[in-house]
TrEMBL record:
Residues 301-328 form a coiled coil. Its cofactor is pyridoxal 5'-phosphate. It comes from Novosphingobium album (ex Hu et al. 2023). This is Aspartate/tyrosine/aromatic aminotransferase. Belongs to the class-I pyridoxal-phosphate-dependent aminotransferase family. Keywords: Aminotransferase, Coiled coil, Pyridoxal phosphate, Transferase. Homodimer. InterPro entries: Aminotransferase_I/II_large, Asp_trans, PyrdxlP-dep_Trfase, PyrdxlP-dep_Trfase_major, PyrdxlP-dep_Trfase_small. The keyword Coiled coil applies.
Length: 392
């Protein structure tokens, strides 16, 4: 009976949206869910996307079905940005399909992993909570390794140990850039080493690239992914356009598979197609079509890249200002300056997280993860003062 179902907790991260909305204080600050905000505190539709949407409305002459793979023009247009202009499909070894956001892509990637007979996924801790949640829902085991050390650097020893002790039937899930939730990314030298370690292991790499362009730049943020792909025979890549095209609620993503022998691609991708059919049949078209129109038009592409530059520059300014505050109450904000993307973690206790919400109207995840883009030059001093007070 339906009444045999157990009550499920609301997703803690998504619940923050409602908590913040319900707070009547005018000076409340939202540092919760990962959405970019401008210096004015808004999340406007990108100029380039608006222009593409106008074009789409004027030119689209049908909304007939496309198939489980979605808009293959969109999937292909992204590939030079993800895999590099020189060999965007690695000599016929990579193919992709459109998915509803990065979550849809991860769902398919992990579904394929499960179907292929893998038993366990090695995941850094902490990670984006939905990683473990999707693994659990699919009946995949999770083995965790420590992602970062207390000094704000990556814990390479933990990763080396996790790879060395991997078992037959294990896959590994890595964040390509802008680690969620810590903002602590691997350096180029570390990626070089990781690629070598993975090449000498039997692990299947799954790379989650949900923030390309929000860290150091579109090319720079693809460094780790590309290093791994030239070193290993097979990999899955879960991609999101939700942040780097600002399309959040339109749910725009893609799944790519790389295999050793191009002759195997059709078989491998047919599993992505059948899993999509069983989950959502076909992805929503609108956002992906808008991305394709941006990428097919040189002027719109240039404007989109300029918009990404503006976002990155603003987040760097916020990070620099937080870092300049240094030791604040009982915490040190200086490592935030060297971290990437939307997120950083401040080591608040659960009581301090609650106090920040109830006393100051400042909302962020229970893990202490803040979305730095929620800070502006208008509210950052208020935030730093609250941190000093609550952690003193
Ligand atoms: C986040 O981590 O805040 C974003 O990826 C949004 C989400 O779906 O959790």
């Amino acid at each position: 009976m339906l009444t045999d179902l157990q009550q499920q907790p609301a997703d803690a991260l998504l619940a923050l949206i409602k908590l913040h909305n319900a707070d009547p204080r005018a000076d409340k600050i939202d540092l919760g869910v990962g959405v970019y905000k401008t210096a004015e505190g808004g999340t406007p539709v990108f100029r380039s996307i608006k222009a593409a949407e106008r074009k789409l409305a004027a030119e689209q002459d049908t909304k007939a079905y496309l198939g489980p793979e979605g808009d293959m023009g969109f999937v292909t247009a992204l590939m030079p940005y993800i895999f590099g202009k020189d060999s965007p499909d690695m000599g016929g070894r990579i193919e992709g399909m459109q998915t509803p956001g990065g979550t849809g892509s991860l769902r398919l990637a992990l579904g394929m992993v499960k179907r292929a007979g893998y038993k366990r996924v090695i995941v850094g801790k902490p990670s984006w909570p939905n990683h473990n949640q999707i693994c659990a829902d699919l009946g995949l085991g999770v083995a965790e390794f420590n992602h970062a050390k207390a000094d704000g650097t990556t814990d390479m020893d933990a990763l080396r140990g996790a790879i060395a002790s991997a078992e037959e039937g294990d896959a590994i899930l890595l964040h390509g850039c802008c680690h969620n939730p810590t903002g602590i990314d691997y350096s180029h030298a570390e990626w070089d080493e990781i690629a070598g370690l993975l090449a000498n292991s039997k692990l299947l790499p799954i790379i989650d690239l949900a923030y390309q362009g929000l860290g150091m730049g579109m090319e720079e943020d693809a460094y780790g992914l590309r290093r791994v792909l030239v070193a290993v025979p097979e990999a899955l890549i879960a991609y999101s356009c939700d942040k780097n095209f600002g399309l959040y609620r339109d749910r725009v993503g893609a799944l790519y598979a790389m295999v050793a022998d191009p002759a195997d691609l059709t078989k491998v991708m047919s599993n992505g197609h059948s899993l999509a059919r069983a989950n959502w049949s076909q992805p929503p078209d609108h956002g992906a079509a808008a991305v394709r129109l941006v990428l097919e038009d040189a002027a719109l592409t240039a404007d989109w890249l300029a918009e990404l530059d503006e976002m990155r520059d603003r987040m760097r300014q916020v990070r620099a200002k937080l870092a300049a505050a240094g030791k604040t109450g009982g915490v040190d904000l200086s490592p935030i300056g060297g971290q990437n993307g939307l997120f950083s973690i401040i080591p608040f206790t659960p009581e301090q997280v609650q106090a920040m919400r109830s006393e100051y109207g400042i909302y962020f995840a229970g893990s202490g993860r803040i979305n730095v883009a929620g800070l502006t030059m208008g509210n950052i001093d208020q935030f730093i003062a609250a941190v000093a007070d609550v952690t003193a």
